[in-house]
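Input record, target 12 of the design panel.
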């Protein structure tokens, strides 16, 4: 036994920590040093207390763990090292330094990325970070060869001299990849990252073939941009130059995802680099892109869109088989495509029965300014792990050009250290990577997809690069960023740097030039630049949209159901299991619905909805209903989800009758969403865009909440078909009604939707009876036409007995775009009618009540239930019933500059008879949707109803 062995054995024998508990205690202590929250509260309190126990030498040194010191001594003993300092009560210095070495490791894991070599332009000075400096812990040059335990690291050595340990930490965490993951609360995931990064010191080991492929992708990225820059001078294309490594990253993600079993990938991105992705990733034929630049592409859409908004799809070969790629159509609202992509992915997952996203992958590409500045990013991230919206994790790639969109100073671009800090809200790890190191970019992409496929969570690749040209090709960035663009002008380009690097490795002096010439030849000939693109592959999960394309508008649809089917469905959805104890109010609702199903009571709105859903799922159409509080219904009319009063857990304490309609029914899904409008509506639009056989409904808690999703309405729902040819059958339910609840809870902004209505782009309806909601929901699926449907749903009418419908209206008939006058007294004396009041919505019931009070049977009241497309034929038919009527009045609850008035004027006028005059009865124009004082609301309501029967003032139109 040598001297060192004796010292080690003596230390081992005298240490009070030896025994069965020592490894357990020491490991907990090391975890505590790295992250105090990672140990149980009882142990944390104990360890906290130890920090205040004075050391034996009278200093304030912290208590130290012994096991790492013991391991270090043991290793030195095995290596025959004889010059050691005995860690004992007489000399605790080495033990303290062992603790400090562990703190140093933890520091590099936590903040090492702040010293990473990330900026290709080398503009920023490295800031001082004391935690990463050995001197901060008291280490000196004399400690460089001192051996310390590498406990809980993955450097493949149990002990290392301080010098080697520092080199390993700096190579791993301060090289071309700066990793952020220590904020993850899951220890398994943290150790996964430590093992992956430390095991290779963040350095890839690619084969010659892989390196050549990386160069090939860089050549393609740069080659396309150069070609376009010379051939189409000054035309906008939002160049990728300076960020060519992005093409390497997305290529690597796709190939590695395919190798792991992914079969579909949906990509969402804004302008920067989009044309490059279309050609060099998805395989769009260069000649087709050039035709768009030359303005010779076919213009077969009513409006069309610019080339850098266009979507595309293709099938490419990967090591795991064919992968279908879809680039989502995208407007200029940057990150708004994020939830649309997520919804599209979720629809594809549901179609495949892929509950964890192992077959379908979303990729979102962000700009550095947009990911930090756009609120929809946060809303979409918040959906990531929720049950109704999870897509198994998204791979985010940031093209970080360090300047934002136009002229922003980095100090004004955001309030966070990194543009990606927003993703920490969902504990998504981030790999910051230098865009001038394409191998590091490829490695980051590979690690990202491995993490996503392993843990089904979001992950971010932040490619720190630059933008060679301006925001667009007509911009001059040096006007506001002179020094930055002097550096950019001197930069040789990532492709040149990497080609030179491979040349020094013996891969050929002319390899880079040869590749560039070959790529240019492919462009000149208009050939594919992606090899191989599969042209004849078709997945069995592909959706056939053919039955819904090219259909002309028609209101006709067979939406009634047989009486026997009505009763069967009604019984199924109103019979609750004995094991479920509903709330007494809910029990009463379902008892009444059972009576409605038997025809013993008129059917109310909630039952009308339920029967529409039940009949659809029984016929094979799925239903997906989401929104804030939509399971119960904001106004407690729906109760689609019954909560057992004796159990609280959601998964075992609820019962959904509509999921128990038939043995082989289609799915019925109802989701109480997060408190978000924009992202949730975008998600549902994306879902509906990929599933024409599901009735996809988003319901606003109050109609005015749709204001928060206006971008989705403007850029997708209203215009997606005329811009991109994308048909979509999403349905919006927007509670609307003037009941004195103030400005924010009265109006769903009917006028905004009507202003967007053109080209039969969507359907805008305001049903007033239970049978009408039944028929319009069924019409949305039964009719072979997919157009967005906006339903302005009621509030007070949900419980108004006058709005209920007899059973016969469900077993025959259909949705009425115009509901005729119901009064038999008016019908008997139709020739005596002098005035026709036309209206839409709740105000109808107020008008009928006032007419009865007045006995004004010379006034006919008709309801326009479908505001757009305006039902000219049905409306004209009703006017002709009253040939002697000289006055037509449009009556509405909304202020004159809002509601339907400005839209319906010319439509009514087109159908008026000779000599008739048109007037308005409603609230005066207002800057606010409604008043906030109850008494003022009542006064206004009384006045507008009186005006509908009074002397016509301010004639608007005559014929």
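The sequence produced for target 12 reads:
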């Amino acid at each position: 036994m040598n001297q060192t062995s004796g010292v080690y054995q003596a230390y081992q024998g005298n240490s009070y920590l030896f025994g069965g508990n020592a490894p357990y205690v020491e490991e907990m202590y090391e975890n505590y040093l790295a992250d105090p929250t990672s140990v149980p509260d009882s142990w944390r309190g104990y360890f906290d207390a130890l920090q205040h126990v004075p050391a034996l030498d009278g200093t304030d040194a912290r208590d130290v763990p012994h096991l790492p010191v013991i391991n270090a001594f043991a290793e030195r003993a095995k290596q025959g090292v004889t010059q050691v300092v005995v860690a004992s009560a007489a000399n605790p210095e080495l033990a303290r330094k062992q603790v400090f070495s562990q703190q140093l490791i933890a520091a590099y894991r936590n903040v090492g990325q702040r010293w990473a070599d990330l900026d290709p332009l080398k503009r920023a000075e490295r800031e001082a970070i004391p935690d990463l400096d050995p001197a901060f812990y008291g280490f000196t040059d004399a400690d460089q060869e001192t051996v310390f335990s590498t406990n809980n690291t993955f450097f493949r050595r149990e002990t290392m001299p301080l010098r080697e340990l520092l080199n390993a930490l700096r190579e791993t965490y301060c090289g071309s990849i700066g990793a952020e993951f220590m904020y993850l609360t899951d220890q398994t995931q943290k150790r996964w990252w430590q093992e992956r990064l430390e095991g290779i010191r963040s350095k890839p080991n690619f084969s010659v073939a892989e390196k050549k492929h990386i160069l090939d992708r860089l050549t393609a990225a740069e080659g396309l941009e150069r070609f376009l820059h010379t051939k189409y001078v000054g035309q906008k294309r939002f160049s990728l130059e300076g960020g060519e490594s992005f093409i390497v990253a997305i290529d690597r993600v796709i190939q590695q995802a395919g190798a792991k079993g992914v079969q579909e990938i949906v990509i969402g991105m804004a302008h920067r680099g989009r044309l490059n992705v279309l050609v060099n990733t998805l395989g769009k034929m260069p000649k087709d892109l050039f035709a768009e630049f030359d303005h010779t592409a076919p213009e077969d859409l009513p409006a069309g869109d610019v080339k850098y908004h266009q979507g595309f799809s293709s099938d490419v070969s990967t090591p795991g088989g064919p992968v279908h790629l879809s680039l989502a159509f995208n407007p200029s609202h940057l990150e708004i495509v994020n939830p649309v992509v997520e919804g599209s992915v979720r629809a594809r997952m549901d179609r495949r029965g892929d509950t964890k996203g192992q077959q379908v992958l979303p990729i979102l590409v962000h700009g550095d300014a947009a990911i930090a500045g756009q609120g929809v990013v946060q809303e979409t991230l918040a959906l990531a792990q929720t049950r109704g919206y999870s897509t198994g994790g998204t791979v985010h790639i940031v093209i970080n050009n360090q300047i934002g969109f136009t002229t922003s100073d980095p100090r004004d671009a955001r309030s966070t250290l990194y543009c990606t800090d927003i993703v920490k809200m969902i504990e998504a790890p981030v790999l910051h990577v230098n865009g001038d190191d394409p191998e590091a970019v490829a490695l980051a992409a590979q690690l990202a997809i491995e993490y996503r496929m392993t843990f089904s969570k979001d992950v971010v690749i932040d490619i720190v690069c630059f933008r060679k040209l301006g925001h667009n090709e007509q911009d001059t960035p040096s006007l506001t960023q002179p020094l930055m663009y002097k550096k950019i002008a001197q930069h040789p380009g990532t492709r040149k740097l990497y080609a030179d690097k491979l040349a020094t490795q013996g891969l050929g002096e002319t390899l880079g030039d040869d590749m560039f010439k070959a790529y240019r030849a492919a462009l000149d000939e208009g050939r594919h630049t992606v090899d191989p693109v599969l042209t004849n592959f078709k997945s069995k999960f592909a959706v056939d949209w053919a039955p819904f394309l090219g259909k002309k508008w028609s209101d006709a649809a067979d939406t009634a159901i047989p009486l026997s089917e009505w009763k069967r469905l009604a019984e199924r959805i109103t019979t609750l299991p004995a094991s479920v104890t509903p709330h007494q109010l809910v029990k009463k609702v379902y008892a009444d619905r059972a009576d409605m199903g038997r025809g013993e009571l008129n059917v109310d709105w909630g039952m009308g909805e339920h029967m529409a859903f039940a009949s659809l799922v029984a016929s094979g159409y799925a239903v997906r209903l989401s929104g804030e509080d939509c399971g119960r219904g904001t106004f407690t009319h729906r109760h689609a989800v019954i909560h057992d009063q004796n159990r609280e857990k959601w998964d075992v304490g609820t019962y959904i009758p509509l999921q128990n309609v038939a043995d082989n029914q289609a799915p019925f899904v109802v989701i109480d969403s997060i408190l978000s409008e924009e992202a949730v509506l975008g998600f549902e639009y994306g879902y509906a865009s990929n599933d024409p056989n599901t009735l996809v409904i988003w319901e606003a808690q109050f109609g005015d909440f749709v204001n928060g999703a206006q971008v989705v309405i403007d850029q997708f729902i209203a215009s997606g078909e005329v811009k991109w040819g994308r048909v979509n059958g999403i349905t919006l339910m927007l509670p609307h009604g003037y009941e004195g609840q103030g400005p924010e809870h009265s109006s769903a902004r009917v006028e905004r939707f009507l202003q967007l209505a053109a080209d039969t782009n969507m359907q805008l309806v305001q049903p007033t009876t239970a049978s009408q909601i039944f028929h319009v929901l069924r019409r949305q699926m039964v009719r072979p036409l997919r157009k967005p449907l906006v339903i302005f749903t009621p509030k007070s009418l949900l419980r108004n007995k006058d709005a209920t419908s007899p059973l016969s209206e469900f077993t025959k008939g259909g949705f009425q775009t115009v509901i005729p006058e119901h009064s038999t007294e008016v019908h008997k004396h139709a020739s005596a009618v002098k005035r026709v009041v036309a209206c839409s919505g709740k105000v109808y019931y107020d008008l009928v009540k006032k007419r009865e009070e007045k006995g004004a049977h010379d006034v006919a009241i008709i309801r326009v239930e479908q505001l757009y497309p305006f039902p000219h034929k049905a409306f004209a038919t009703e006017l002709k019933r009253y040939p002697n009527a000289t006055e037509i009045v449009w009556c509405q609850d909304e202020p004159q500059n809002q509601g339907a008035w400005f839209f319906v004027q010319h439509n009514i006028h087109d159908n008026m008879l000779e000599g008739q005059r048109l007037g308005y009865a409603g609230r005066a124009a207002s800057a606010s949707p409604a008043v906030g004082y109850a008494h003022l609301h009542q006064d206004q309501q009384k006045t507008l109803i009186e005006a509908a029967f009074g002397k016509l003032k301010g004639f608007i139109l005559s014929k």
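The chain has four domains: 3-184, 208-298+307-467+497-529, 563-811, 821-958.
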